[in-house]
Write a structure and sequence with these properties.
The chain folds into five domains: about 100 residues, NusA, N-terminal domain (N Utilization Substance Protein A, Chain:P, domain 4); about 60 residues, Nucleic acid-binding proteins (OB fold (Dihydrolipoamide Acetyltransferase, E2P), Beta Barrel), CATH 2.40.50.140; about 60 residues, 2-Layer Sandwich (GMP Synthetase, Chain A, domain 3); about 60 residues, GMP Synthetase, Chain A, domain 3, CATH 3.30.300; about 80 residues, DNA polymerase, domain 1. Helix content is about 45%, strand content about 20%. The chain contains 15 helices and 15 strands. It has a five-stranded antiparallel beta sheet with strand order 6-5-4-7-8. A four-stranded mixed beta sheet has the order 9-10-11-15, with helices on both faces. Helix 2 crosses helix 3, helix 8 runs antiparallel to helix 10 and helix 11 runs antiparallel to helix 15.
Length: about 425
């Protein structure tokens, strides 16, 4: 066994990268345990030593050397089991170390099978898992399909490293742009933030570190080819490319594209912005099921409140005494404290309202709740009126056509449309 044992050790060290000394120590420990079980407690302390040069195994119970053909067979079997175990552990460690260093990167693999709605993807010499929650709802795959995915995380487990992939993570979009746009890969153009709802739409905020390089143009590419390639990889997901700005007002305007903003009011301490748009731009600014404003809020890191001009006018026409429970005296106290409009009351804190003369906590809460309810009612009426007007416009075919985003075919008369708003890029 000695020569064979040493040959196996050398092979493992050379081919698998397993530490030779670690295997020898593991075999010594396993042999001592096996001998202790065989001889019983009366044998005393069992020691096992393997000569590193010759591979000769020395076993002793206390001061007495153990010489037995039976223990020769035990030693061979035990060494075999330990070596197999060490090989498995080493291979798992190598795979874990390799992919742990690739978290956040883009990987390419082949779909092997389906498990519980997820995909098992072969990546090199191991397998990774793409769970259903990390898949784009509009994508589907078959066995053997090639797939690009974002490496989300790597965890250790009894069965080996668990590698989790994602096709829904916003990082996937960033990595695809790094592949497609050399200026991003070279660091000339930087991706500042991304917001994404996988399968539907993504917004990308970029900035150029070189005044001679247009960040939006670089990402869009000649005739929109770069962004179109990414849209194709994402199975038609629309992408808005926004010019990032440290001036939040400009950034918000770009983030809400393709809608046009009339006015906005920024509250920096509360990270909130109130945006006012023309009536015919409200639905475009909010987006389908609120998607556009939701993505813009994630992109800018601000709480965005969008209202139409008709809604603002309706709110401005409300007097304080229309708030349920507010009479002339309370209205006068509120005005004295600086709350001249219902809107200001609805956005105040209870402490601020209680600062008004003669208004306690219960009254402040009642006034606040009443102002909120009144504004909600007014806005519902304004929204209903706007919906009626919009339906009438649709019947006459006069609704405005929004500028197309990447992944959307242009309208038939798109050539006659004005160019996209400054700070946004579309294909």
């Amino acid at each position: 066994m000695n020569a064979e044992f040493l040959a196996v050790l050398d092979h493992l060290t050379r081919e698998k990268g397993i530490d030779r000394e670690a295997i020898i120590q593991a075999v010594e420990s396993a042999l001592a345990s096996a001998a202790r079980k065989s001889l019983g407690e009366q044998a005393g302390e069992i020691t096992v030593t393997i000569d590193r040069a010759t591979g000769v195994i020395y076993m002793a119970a206390g001061e007495q050397e153990i010489r037995s053909a039976e223990f020769g067979r035990i030693a061979a079997q035990t060494a075999k089991q330990v070596i197999i175990q060490k090989i498995r552990e080493a291979e798992r460690d190598v795979v874990y170390a390799e992919f742990q260093g690739k978290v956040g990167q883009l990987l390419t693999g082949t779909v092997q099978r389906f498990e519980g709605g997820g995909l098992v993807v072969e990546i090199g010499r191991t397998e990774a898992f793409l769970p259903k929650r990390e898949q784009s709802p509009k994508e589907s795959y078959r066995h053997g399909d090639r797939i690009k995915a974002y490496l989300l995380e790597v965890k250790r487990s009894v069965k080996g490293p668990q590698i989790t992939l994602s096709r829904a993570h916003a990082g996937l979009v960033k990595k695809l742009f790094e592949l497609e746009v050399p200026e991003i890969a070279d660091g000339i153009v930087e991706v500042k933030s991304i917001s994404r709802e996988a399968g539907d739409r993504a917004k990308l905020a970029v900035i150029s570190k070189d005044d001679k390089v247009d960040c939006v143009g670089a990402c869009v590419g000649m005739r929109g080819q770069r962004v179109k390639n990414i849209v194709r990889e994402l199975q038609g997901e629309k992408i808005d490319i926004v010019r990032w700005s440290d001036k939040l007002e400009e950034f918000v305007v770009g983030a809400l594209a393709p809608a046009k903003v009339s006015k906005l009011k920024l509250d920096r301490p509360k990270r909130r912005v109130e945006v006012i748009v023309e009536d015919d731009q409200l639905s475009l600014a909010i987006g389908k099921k609120g998607q556009n404003v939701r993505l813009a809020a994630k992109l800018t890191g601000l709480d965005i409140d969008i209202r139409s001009e008709s809604q603002i006018k309706a709110r401005a026409g409300i007097v304080l005494t229309e708030i349920p429970g507010v009479g002339p005296k309370i209205a006068e106290a509120l005005q004295t404290a600086g709350f001249s409009t219902v809107d200001r009351v609805a956005h105040a804190s209870l402490e601020e309202l209680m600062a008004a003369p003669g208004i306690g906590e219960k009254t402040a809460q009642k006034v606040f709740d009443g102002a909120k309810a009144l504004l909600d009612e007014v806005e519902k009426k304004a929204a209903a009126a706007q919906a009626v007007a919009q339906q009438a416009a649709e019947g006459e075919g006069v609704l405005p056509v929004p500028a197309p985003s990447a992944g959307e075919p242009p309208a038939p008369d798109a050539a006659a449309e004005p160019p996209p708003a400054e700070g946004t890029g579309t294909a």
